[in-house]
């Protein structure tokens, strides 16, 4: 096989000249590694030796310090005994003197006798003063007073000896610290130099070789980035690798490029099928996952090399207000209506250059559209358009099926609540009606007797309690019979505002609904609607407002938020018992949704009721 090296001898190119081989043996990695290991071992021996020396020379320092400290205490104890006659006895004094002699003549302190430093001088001074001055004074009771007067000076000498012991030990420790610091600096220096050497002469060349191997595996045989030049083992390996790459380049040539051209279309088709399968599998259970939808849009944009690709979606069929989901951002359309885009129902090229729009259609219901824009050099093939239309159909079908499931659960919930309402009406309502009749009969009977004035207040309270209970029951039955329309929470809120507008024409009711692509379960829709109705009822009864606004939105934390605000007189600092009871019921409803409810007075006047709860797919109900 011919070589691309021309007239250069292959063996010389790989192994180098004889002079280079001799230089390689001198600067081999093996010798340098042994040199570094030997240096580190030497520094470690120095460090261990210093530690052993310190342990040896300071073996008795701690005991000497403790004994020296005890000499002060024993001196004051002797002074105490000679000052108090009751404590002064020959046996006790002799025992204390023996203890003192044993302490001052202990082995740790006697080692200081031959020490020529200040420490030895301090010890010899203390021992001399004890045996020549202090101890003789205790032999005769006449010397007790002189002993007591000399104790402070004697204790000061002991203190100086203790300080000298401490300073002596600290000096040894400082020497050990300096030695350890020197060893550590040496080890760190050698480590840094070793790391630099390894990174430059081993890791970097090996990384280059690994990258070059990857490039060769991908069919690239030139510009491998093997620039390492050295006479060591890695240099020889690099030169050998370069020669191998040249030989492989001559062998394969441009074969890889031809294979890429033939397999690109097949790979794109496989990826498109994978995306369709992924969308069908994941969106079937949760079509409201914005992150999933955005990631799918981004993958389609990358696969088909599109300039722009985004979805405009709504969970309400034939809605004119959509939510835009793109690969890099998510936002509501700037306009109030999307009729202009929705009217373009043809799945094909638009009037705009290089743009296509695919309608999300399921069972003749439209849930938005998918719009793509190709670059000037990209032409969207017929097959690619079929893929995108299938992707749009999968999203539309998923939304439609999810709406059907929510509607079924809503109907079951409505039916269950209707049954409860009928049972309450048939039992408790009739009982309360009967109670009202009985109270009326009792009053009429008592009117014929003389006891009427004394029982009239009781009868009035009983009648008022029965009427209140009956009114609360009627309100409860009205709540249980509350239903949601086919359009979901948005239409139910709109009808609620229309109902309150008819009740209170002096108040202007507004709705700002921005939850057009959010999963809200039937349970949450019912409770959210009831909380809004209760808040609006409070506005009508107590706020004295001219405007009330209901806003539904997604919070910064990804939760769902609903606010009811008015421009009335504002909530009281200490609400009445009735108002407190109504707020408690709303908070209990919010807690059953897994959320929270807060009521506050606005600084500009009026009241705000704020409800926050999670999306339905983030929790389950027992």
TrEMBL record:
GO terms for cellular component: plasma membrane. Residues 200-253 form the HAMP domain. It is a multi-pass membrane protein. It is found in: Cell inner membrane. It catalyses: ATP + protein L-histidine = ADP + protein N-phospho-L-histidine. It holds the Pfam family HAMP. This is Sensor protein. It is an enzyme of class 2 (transferase). One of its GO terms (molecular function) is phosphorelay sensor kinase activity. Its EC number is 2.7.13.3. Its main location: membrane. The chain crosses the membrane at residues 33-56, 176-198. It comes from the Bacteria. Keywords: ATP-binding, Cell inner membrane, Cell membrane, Kinase, Membrane, Nucleotide-binding, Phosphoprotein, Transferase, Transmembrane, Transmembrane helix, Two-component regulatory system.
